[in-house]
Design brief:
8 helices; nine-stranded mixed sheet; alpha/beta; globular; binds uridine-5'-diphosphate; 37% helix
């Protein structure tokens, strides 16, 4: 039995990139879509916040001399590309999906309307939130905490390339240890690179547990939703 009635899945752009250096890996997107469909089939209501780092990241644009706000708007548009790819992959396997953008793009998708998004989920549709919060100087992690709060989600599930939160980057430091459980405060004080501090603070305020798991393990999302498998759980205590 699923532990959660409604979840928000945060997919970073990187998670959709596979082994590439840039852009989307269609195979990875299709596999992630299967994982999401599997969870929907278990009766869980699912919404997704999608990143854009695989295409454009505001800070790197700013670093190369671009005005930060402009670079961030470009980053938000990048999330739109990922959102449409995810919708396409989900609908290809008969999983009804609606994209809602925080920046209105009437010819392409719906605009973000909170109650409408909730209604879609009640009908069993997956809602993909694009364009982050719609504001520069934020990240899609913060957008994930914000939408999870607005949607009344029972969990914010962050899909990454590794199976939880480590004391250091496990790909660079062989001594890095993995945590099964953490508190929001641990994440903030130990400066663990899970999500940015505003996202952690907002999830904490809304009392939404954060779960970090690897999207590269087959069936991992369904396991996480049933409280099985490997993941790190972040809560108040
Ligand atoms: N972004 C923004 N406001 C938001 C969300 C995202 O300005 O509310 C911009 C920001 O430039 C960011 C880019 O969009 O670098 C892509 O999002 P993010 O880096 O969070 O994607 P991820 O790391 O999850 O792939």
């Amino acid at each position: 039995m699923p532990h959660y009635k409604r979840i928000l899945v945060k997919l970073s752009g990187e998670a959709l990139m596979g082994d590439r250096d840039y852009g989307l890996d269609a195979g990875v997107v299709a596999r992630v879509a299967e994982e999401i469909k599997d969870v929907v089939a278990r009766g869980v209501e699912v919404c997704v916040v999608i990143g854009g780092g695989n295409i454009f990241r505001g800070v790197s644009g700013a670093a190369s001399g671009m005005e930060r706000a402009t670079a961030d708007y470009m980053g938000m548009l990048a999330t739109m590309i990922n959102a449409l790819a995810m919708q396409n992959a989900l609908e290809k396997i008969n999983c009804q999906t609606r994209v809602q953008s925080a920046i209105p793009m009437a010819a392409v998708c719906e605009s973000y309307i909170r109650r409408r998004a909730m209604r879609h989920m009640e009908k069993g549709r997956v809602v993909v939130f694009a364009a982050g919060t719609g504001n520069p100087f934020f990240t899609t992690d913060t957008a994930a905490a914000l939408r999870a709060s607005e949607m009344g989600c029972d969990a914010l599930i962050k899909a990454t390339k590794v199976d939880g939160v480590y004391s250091a980057d496990p790909k660079k430091d062989p001594k890095a240890t993995r945590y099964d459980k953490l508190t929001y405060l641990d994440v903030l004080t130990k400066d663990l690179e899970v999500m940015d501090t505003s996202a952690i603070s907002l999830a904490r305020q809304s009392r939404i547990p954060i779960i970090v798991f690897s999207i590269f393990t087959h069936g991992a999302l369904a396991d996480v939703v049933e409280g099985k498998g490997r993941f790190t759980l972040i809560t108040e205590n």
